[in-house]
Amino acid sequence: MRILDGIYQLLTPFPQFTLEDAKxxxxxLEEHPRVxxxxxxxxxxxxxxxxxxxxxxxxxxxxxxxxxxEAGMQEHGSHPxxxxxxxxxxxxxxxxxxxxxxxxxxxxxxxxxxxxxxxxTDRYFAPKTLTDQMGRFMEMNGVPTMDxxxxxxxxxxxxxxxxxxxxxxxFQGGEILKVGQFEFEVIWTPGHSPGHxxxxxxxxxxxxxxxxxxxxxxxxxxxxxxxHGSPLGDYMRSLEKLVDLDVKxxxxxxxxxxxxxxxxxxEIEEHHIVRLDEMAKCVDRxxxxxxxxxxxxxxxxxxxxxxxxFMQRAAVGETIAHLEYLFEVGRLAKVMRGKAMxxxxx
Length: 346
Ligand SMILES: [Zn+2]
Ligand SMILES: [Zn+2]
What we know:
Blueprint: E1 2-4, E2 7-9, E3 12-13, H1 19-31, E4 41-42, E5 45-49, E6 52-56, H2 63-75, E7 85-87, H3 93-96, H4 99-106, E8 109-113, H5 114-125, H6 127-140, H7 148-152, E9 169-171, E10 176-179, E11 182-188, E12 197-201, E13 206-210, H8 231-242, E14 249-252, H9 261-281, H10 290-296, H11 309-328, E15 332-337, E16 340-345
Parallel strand pairs: 6-7, 7-8, 8-9, 13-14
Antiparallel strand pairs: 1-2, 2-5, 3-4, 5-6, 10-11, 11-12, 12-13, 15-16
The chain binds zinc ion (2 copies).
């Protein structure tokens, strides 16, 4: 789909969806936003100007996602073999999965923020250590031992759908990517992942937001074995970085494109403020583990105990991110008892 001359929105389906179903959902969601179970597709963007073809994000490394990308590019007279630069907003498999395959087809320059480049080895080339770390991490957060192996293995099934490749260029934030008439500024927006970036084009007032800002859902901001510090604190600060930008087009990597950046940022901030209060209320006076808190919180998709292991892990990680933020602002304290971490009112 053409956004404006030179900027095109493409679509690649998630492994569980056909291209036809994903395209249908793309239109339905825009007209009637609702919570879907899982994400149906990724929206890569092709920037084509001045004789250059740049792709921002790609999709899972499946044959159907590649075929969808190829067909989408062909609609605008292009082909994946022409890609000169592949910019990845963050290294989650739905955005980065096909990078290795595209590099084989085009010898493109793969560009990723240095903080996400750091996790590629652990996540995709040596997942065994990560699995062990995750097991210990889950134990520390009160996840019952019986559930731990399934949860820590939760994301391993996806490794086959990622063609990982080390980046050729690592961003720090602040770089300008010139593509013909377009000048995209790389804005580092940590939170959803430590090296997440957004791309801002001030002359055309376009903001590519990746997973940082989506029109109806809030991205998972989570703590797991590989994260440090307070990702939710980072995420809230990253929203503030964007709130005053002059933007006419918000181009996210899921759901659909929108116009009103400021309104959406305020909505997301309010969502987290409500969520933080709710989480704080779920902490016992005598102390609770993150697992206990996650079990009491209301999730949009149901009860924690009914979730798939992978989603349970995401929910626990998201709970910890909120608890860590409450700790950062002085509302909660934390203490180790035996092998487990307990949170309690400050
Ligand atoms: Zn993501
Ligand atoms: Zn995503």
